[in-house]
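Study both lines:
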Amino acid sequence: MDGNGRWATQRNKYRTSGHKAGVNSVRKTIKQASEIGVQWLTLFAFSSENWQRPEKEVSMLMELFTRALKKEVPELHENGVRLSFIGDLSRFSDGLRKRMKTVESLTKNNRKMVLTIAVNYGGRWDIVQAARHLALALQNGRIKESEITEESFERFLSLNNAPHPDLLIRTGGDQRMSNFLLWQAAYAELYFTQTLWPDFDESSLNQAVEEYYNRERRFGKTPKQVKEES
């Protein structure tokens, strides 16, 4: 969800105004995704690299995140959305971590959509922490070397209970993944748009999904094989 700061700068506003406007786009996107049948939605809210931003901006983002949890969760829960959080949560305050656990517990039985919020997350961090847990399992005899496969490795990754993402959308014009779901998105369709995140609305999401459905996903096969199988 990129472009909050630039959106504010273009309007001669503080960057914090862009982040606040971005929350509205989050709300619209979740609602529209649910209405068109998306069952798994993951939002990259705060990367492990975002701590390098000005201290005041980071503090405001944490405050905005906390307020959003308080305000938005009741409606999400009412509409059958299950929330989960991935990333290195140890850097957050005890109060914020407690609130995230409470939200996960409250919504754990909801089935309409799984909404995952990636906070203090990085794709490389995800792979490294999975490797550490795998090494520990190997050391403790819970897994044999011969049993180490892509599938067994994935069990230690974040989102290990989720299907691989089909579509990865990046707003703001930059055409890179910026350390997001590097392992999981190996075969995801990438969609880049110049639209800044606060301007991303229901029609923007529909356009991305429409383009996704017009693409041919081969997963290493030939177009002929895909056509025959379909």
Summary: The first strand starts at residue 40 and ends at 47.
